[in-house]
Design goal:
Oligomer: single chain
Number of strands: 3
Strand content: under 5%
Distance between the termini: 72 Å
Largest sheet: 3 strands, parallel
Shape: elongated
Order of helices and strands: HHHHHHHHHHEHHEHHHE
Helix content: 55-70%
Structural class: mainly alpha
Amino acid sequence: SVSDNLPSAGQAEMVSALDQNGPQYLQNPIVIAADWIGFIALFGSSLAVAYKLVTFKGPDQDDVYFFGYREEKMISVFVNLFAALAYWAKLASHANGDVGPAASVTTYKYLDYLFTCPLLTIDLLWCLNLPYKFTFGAIVAVCILCAFMASVIPPPARYMWFGMGITVFSAAWFNILKLVRMRLEQFVSKEAKKVRQSLKVACMTYFFIWLGYPTLWVLGDAGVLDSVVSALLHTFLDVFSKSIYGFALLHFVMRTDKREFIFVPLKPSVEKIVVEDDESTSSRAESTRASKSKIMIGSRVKKLRSSATDELRPSATNMNPWLNGLPNGLSMGGSMGSMGGMPGMPGGMGDHGLEDVEMHNQSAQQQYLATQEEINQVNKQLQDLLMRTGGAGRSI
């Protein structure tokens, strides 16, 4: 009959046990030590990250509940905490001799991944204000479900689930990488480059460490790795992809919040404009003001602000446009008394020279009025944009 071809509950448990090469490897001292290391590292990381975030008082050191009102920045705390609970469940299973339902290490592992991997994705995209935060988080959850099925179901169905999972994973991985690279390319100013390194570390752990999980699955299924080595490598990947990632992203978040970075939505037109570093031409006073203002990443304000700064930057040309075009015979000495041709001023400058000076003065005034009008237009555009982005800020 058809029922005779279906595996019994005992056979299903046997398949699951064989998938883990039997429960005996779980009592290996190396595996138990690795689980303790994983628990201590992940639980300690959750406490450390939580402490740093809770004690952060904002850019002006006057807001006790700064991250209390920005709780999306607390996601890395729960990522490490959920992972630590999974390792705690493994340690509890070891204490019971790894027998019965408690020995279902696969369930613990993928229950951990089902929570933490989508949260890691949402955390990264939210910190950079990138689109499709929850969409990609849900797609990653689908990948984890496929991976779980591929780990507990015998062939050939397991390879069908693995193929589905790796296909969805690859599409999500490449699209998330594309978004993050677009944002990284907007870190062009001097202030932005100072905090970019910690973001790069977080991104490297996210994108490259994650590739290790399907690789371990393939090597384990092919018999290249035994269960003990696989357990050690999974612990290594878990700590790096959650703890190291969490600390790197924490460093990035706290430095950007201290400088009040504003990440505006990605737009193709914006990315074409943001291509230069305007910090290299800023004056000392401009840099001082910049340290106290908000910094906008990926804003079309950058080019407008750079243009306005060039107009306002002191120089012999735009401060006194007529100095470079003085008529021949008019000398500029150490005092106003050195201008010849005027009463009480030696030098013999005639009426023709005075007319030239008057014309230059009128030209300078016209240029000044035109510059003021352009600056007013730029300021109006800045105000309109800053009202949409939530406060005054200085562009990058």
